Write the structure tokens for this entry.
Amino acid sequence: MAEMVETALPDSKCPVCGYHFDACTSMPDNNDPRPKPGDLSLCINCASVLYFDANMSHVVYEHPERLDRQTRAVLARGQEAIRRTQEAIRKAKAALT
């Protein structure tokens, strides 16, 4: 299995939740880990399905149901991991107060 690769990005934000991005991380099985226009992405904060536009800004991907089954499954696993992580962070913060 290939490594995950982090790539610096122009500063952009999630169009859904406003989270600011300055980097992205590739999936381990991606043959070309550098993002390019049209590639899909997930917001690490709200788990929205996004894609990179020509300026490498994030845009909402309006119809994920139209993607092939394998891509939808990969996105769903990523979304679930993000949601579990965000919930663990919320619980940890709550425990500190």
